[in-house]
Amino acid sequence: MLLATSTNIYCERNGEQDIPVEESIRMCADAGYRYLDFGFEELNRRSTLLSKSEWKQELLIYKKIADDLGVGFVQAHAIIYNFCNISPNSLLLEKLMKRCVEGTALLGANWIVVHPSTYIEDGDISPETHARNVEYFKKLVNFAQQFDVGVAIENMWGKTKEGVQRYAIKAEELVGLIDAVDHPYFGACWDVEHGSVEGINQPDAIRMLGCRLKAVHISDESGLDHVHILPYMGSISWSPILQALAEINYNNPFTFEIQHYLPNVPEHLVLPSMHLSVKVGNYMIDQINAYKESLF
């Protein structure tokens, strides 16, 4: 199993500008990471790259930097696009979403994580939400297949701006969506921190997803104001989760999404802290492998 981290691990610095993507890639390589999850959402927040005509050339620059450092991209995270609810930016966001998919292939990755959308009607969740997600993702996955890229749907948490609980918080909803789309290039990404905030029985959720699980976002939390931090620094009980991953024989990348781990860390401690995250990730993978040996 490969240990990976999102490029957003070294992105946010409290009170300062975001760190450029190329610097994040270099720091990840220096820390010992060899596999990365490319954050298109953070890229889109930092720049207008994806809307420019030369967007492919810039992505290939990032790939060359990674290649030169001996680092590869194994997955990506798309922009956040609330596709069920039309807005003035919908046409642009649809174009950017497709560029995220094609860009994932350019970077050499096989899966892109995408958020589902909650359809709001008259201030409440519409019963058409599930059907609209099925319709959208059938089209997106057929587009992604052209580039040999799979689409992994992430479990959500919290409420919309209207105060409505989001669609696809529960594993049952992810399973229903994945089975309705029914495509080999379509699966799930389970975000452990999201599941913890929502009080979900995560080992049961992982077992329910089973072979549908194509990606994970691994991070801890100790309350809504302290999320996406390094495992074992929050409130999550990790052993049952790691055991469940072993039980379903999960072998896809084990990917950290810990963008709130480093923002307050003094600059001269950032690299040692990233070294620690690599050790923690390898320890967790060793635990999964040990559980597998006892099971199989």
Written account of the structure:
There is one protein chain. With 296 residues, the protein is an alpha/beta fold. It contains 10 helices and 12 strands. It has helices at residues 21-31, 40-46, 55-68, 90-107, 129-145, 171-181, 192-197, 202-209, 238-247, 267-295, and strands spanning 3-6, 35-39, 72-77, 111-114, 120-121, 124-125, 150-154, 186-191, 213-217, 220-221, 227-229, 254-256. The protein has one domain (3-295): Divalent-metal-dependent TIM barrel enzymes (TIM Barrel, Alpha-Beta Barrel). The model has no long low-confidence stretch (mean pLDDT 96). 44% of the residues lie in helices and 16% in strands. Strands 9-8-7-4-3-2-1-12 form an 8-stranded parallel sheet. It has a two-stranded antiparallel ribbon with strand order 5-6. A two-stranded antiparallel ribbon has the order 10-11. α9 crosses α10 (267-295). The chain starts with a strand and ends with a helix.
> Given the C-alpha coordinates, what overall shape results?
globular
In terms of structural class, how would the helical and strand content be classed?
alpha/beta
Helix and strand pattern: EHEHHEHEEEHEHEHHEEEHEH
The CATH fourth-level homologous superfamily:
Divalent-metal-dependent TIM barrel enzymes
Q: Strands of the biggest beta sheet: in what spatial order?
A: 9-8-7-4-3-2-1-12
Helix content: 40-55%
The CATH class label is Alpha Beta
Mean pLDDT: 96
CATH topology: TIM Barrel
Biggest sheet layout: 8 strands, parallel
The total strand number stands at 12
